[in-house]
Amino acid sequence: MDWDWEYAIDSLPLLAEGMLVTIELTVLGALFAYLLGLVFAMIRRVGVPVLSQFVYLFVEFIRSTPLLIQVFAFYYLLQPAIGVKLSPFLTGVIMLGVHYATYTSEVYRAGIEAIPKGQWEAARALSIPRSRVWTGIILPQAVPRVLPALGNYTISMFKETPLLLAIGVVDVLNSAKEAGAETFRVIEPYTLAGVFFLLVSYPASILVRKLERRVGTV
Amino acid sequence: MSSGLMSYVWEGLGNTLLLTVFGALLGLVFAFIAGLARSSERKWVRGIAMVYTEVFRGFPSLVLLFALIFIVPTFGYQLNPLFAGILALALNIGAYAAEVVRGAVKAVPPGQIEAAIALNFTPLQRLRKVILPQAVVAMIPPFTNNLIELLKATSLVSLVYISDLTFSAQLIRASTGETALVFFGLLVGYGVIALFFTAIMKLLERMAARALGRTVPSGFFGRKEVAA
Fold it and tell me: What PANTHER family does this protein map onto (chain A) (predicted)?
């Protein structure tokens, strides 16, 4: 079987549309993961009784089970059980967000632990209110240092989005699959889908490495 | 559940373990070849290794699986699906682990290598007797993370119709309608397998450290490493 340029070019618009969905999923999921991860990390750090232990178990559990099954469980089990029906896209955003929040929470934890103890003590000595200690002292120092690690997880998240085709999200790989099913030619759409991924993830990883050199790693 | 359905579970579990273990072994081979090649003196060797790690870290493993399962047959070969799954997962995880190998080799103190040169060790002896024994200890904790990632990635093969644990579970769900039981069982099942692999890696880490006369902090989980 040989490469058909005409067909490859014809399938480009469809794939580009799918790529847009992939990027939307990644951006929204990542924002959710950054936020939820920070919440997890702060609950653990402050040591809210019961909640803190619960978060620990939740993080360990989510981290050691496959995202695909979590997506299935959320889509086919949890949503009917609580009587809501979210679109596959929204399900994808939420599950990507929750799954990667367990990773980002570890990243934030490392960033927060890297803040010297003297900073906490100085803040206490000056009797700065607790909320102000977090927002004015700890987080402004911890967050920039963890940006490269967050970037790396965002790239992994980007590469995990295609598994959402299992619940019918039409991302770039699913678009390729549909194009292939229609014409029985699979080389072009799948190769192009792969190229699309590489075109985004490689420059992104170079960017993250540049960022790493600038702010250093935790 | 009838014994007929249970046999699906055992088959799926067997395939999942097979994919994980052989994917890890093959991935380890790729990782060592690429990771050591990154510190080669020849530019083209370094170049090939770099292209491998960058390309396969840039691809989603699912795209790789689709390529091996659906594109390769159009050229007239038909890979055994299970082997195609192992190969796709190994190529992907090997690229990540290659970076671990490279980092660990780079972290061996230069004095050790200089001493080995001063003692007239051949490059191969240097690698085998001085660099690797120390580097391997540093590799095991990040390898544990890679192994768990690999285990989780094996569930993707169900999307290309390879009968792993997830695939069998879907069959059972389709025939019995026991959604809650199936998904809950799956999540717990993968969690338990992950614990099992973590325990084995912990044991390996202790053994490797003891061979060097070091000790590893006790406790089942030890100190957690943040993979970044």
Answer: L-CYSTINE TRANSPORT SYSTEM PERMEASE PROTEIN TCYL, MEMBRANE COMPONENT OF AMINO ACID ABC TRANSPORTER
